[in-house]
Amino acid sequence: MRKLLYVAFVAVCLAIAVAACSDKKPVEQPVPEGDSIVDSVEVDTMEELIEEEPIPVAADELFDDFIFNFAGNRKQQLARITFPLTVVSGETTSTIERKDWKVDHFFMSQGYYTLILDNHKQLDLPKDTSVNHVVLEKINLSDGLVKQYNFDRQNGTWMLTSLRNVDLDTHSNASFLRFYQRFATDSVFQTESLNEVMSFIGPNPDDDFEELAGDITPEQWPAFCPGELPSGQIYNIIYGTPSGTKNQKVFLLRGISNGQEMEMTFRKVGDHWKLFKLVE
Prior knowledge:
Helices cover 24% and strands 36% of the residues. It is an alpha+beta fold. The strands form 2 sheets. Strands 2-1-6-5-4-9 form a 6-stranded mixed beta sheet. A 6-stranded mixed beta sheet has the order 3-10-11-12-7-8. The radius of gyration is 21 Å and the shape is globular. 20% of the residues are buried.
């Protein structure tokens, strides 16, 4: 995955350098609604460079490699969707024709993506080449809606095969998602949601070159908390079939190109979710 991202990054840099040496001022083209990553020149340039290139065969081995190509290439995205695409919303089923599809760049604009796992064993699933079904979720915590993109690997090729719109309150992770929405935006509630003794592994707040490992209490939380957490809209990737575990969630935040990662382990104690472990 990192190799593919590095190639894309180098391609963007070369394109920008060529443009800088030209005597002609580039004409700014309007971007159709739903087609842009917050007006990102880099995405358009990258698409121009790789538009004629198919998604590499090696990218189909792992979904993570495939999705970055799928999200960054308008032409290949259209080629990897089963049209007419079935869309299920409650009891209503409809379809989207190829001409009506709006390119979706997913989480590429925000520089990171999130995962909500049932246990730590699932941390290995993104590297499992036997996974043939993946659900990418766009979770709108503010509106209480979840859009599920269903991908299947057919004859060795990943394809978007259907969409499903789900009310957040009927989602299998509804309890945790409602909790997380408040945990991410309410500092008082966040402190109240810490376990009495919480495990911490991460950088020393007083020394950036030293790592700490041990237990911290709620009173020490301000010195170790990760700062602003994703809220409003987040993404989740479900690899294969979830285990169905309802009393534990591993919330993972991964940087797209910087290798940064943060892991929070929550457990449900009675009716309340508690943060038991933070790894930065």
